[in-house]
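FAQ

Q: What does a record look like?
A: Structure on top, sequence underneath. For example:
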């Protein structure tokens, strides 16, 4: 079953600048892996598929929904094109810092708390989003208006919660996003049953699912699958592989 959000992914031109930016907001660096193998199963979701990339992971101080920073070798330009908007709570001194090394984000000033509060995705049709996020992913709708839906994970573990807002817009991007374009572009979810949840999301409108693959990150083996949501955003499913499990 899907437990909730693992992290939100940002592709960045400069790893060091992005890390320092989030640390200034009050996030703590959990780990950084340089030269990590880039899984060929991600090819569908990239413009180019280099052999290696760099990853860093940070967390705020009020919940464990993390920030994943990824730098690809060809990602040197700064023409940010985020796939969705991100609202982050953090220290006020960072507010107004220009330019942001992670692309446009909204910062809520807070001297004592650091966390991702919400993400906003544009969609050309809310019914498809309901089928995917509510019926297949099992999220609950906490607010519904004519042009917007607010989703949150249904499982009662608040630490894995943030608000996913889907807004109907005729200007929503028609083409699916790619992971190597700088900006916020990945929604990562934790699952305890990857194969079953992959099938559920595909039946609920998820598109072009990748094969399930394994990756060792910070010494932990992860089983991973990527697919596109109906809004054309990349959704990652992660299952933490148990010690001794060789599947």
């Amino acid at each position: 079953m899907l437990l909730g959000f693992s992290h939100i992914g940002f592709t960045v031109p400069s790893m060091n600048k992005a890390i320092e930016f989030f640390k200034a907001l009050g996030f703590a660096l959990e780990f950084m892996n340089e030269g990590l193998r880039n899984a060929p199963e991600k090819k569908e979701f990239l413009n180019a598929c280099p052999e290696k990339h760099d990853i860093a992971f940070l967390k705020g101080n009020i919940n464990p929904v993390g920030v994943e920073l990824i730098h690809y070798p060809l990602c040197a330009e700064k023409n940010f094109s985020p796939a969705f908007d991100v609202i982050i709570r953090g220290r006020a001194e960072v507010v107004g810092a220009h330019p942001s090394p992670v692309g446009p984000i909204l910062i809520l000033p807070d001297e004592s708390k650091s966390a991702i509060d919400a993400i906003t995705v544009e969609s050309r049709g809310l019914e498809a989003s309901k089928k995917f996020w509510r019926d297949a992913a099992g999220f609950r709708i906490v607010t519904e208006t004519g042009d917007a839906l607010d989703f949150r994970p249904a499982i009662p573990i608040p630490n894995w919660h943030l608000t996913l807002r889907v807004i109907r817009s005729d200007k929503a991007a028609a083409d699916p996003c790619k992971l190597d374009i700088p900006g916020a572009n990945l929604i990562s979810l934790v699952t305890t049953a990857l194969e079953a949840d992959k099938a559920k999301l595909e039946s609920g409108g998820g598109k072009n699912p990748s094969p399930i693959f394994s990756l060792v990150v910070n010494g932990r083996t992860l089983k991973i699958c990527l697919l596109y949501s109906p809004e054309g955003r990349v959704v990652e499913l992660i299952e933490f592989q148990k010690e001794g499990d060789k599947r």
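Q: Is there anything notable about this one?
A: The radius of gyration is 17 Å.
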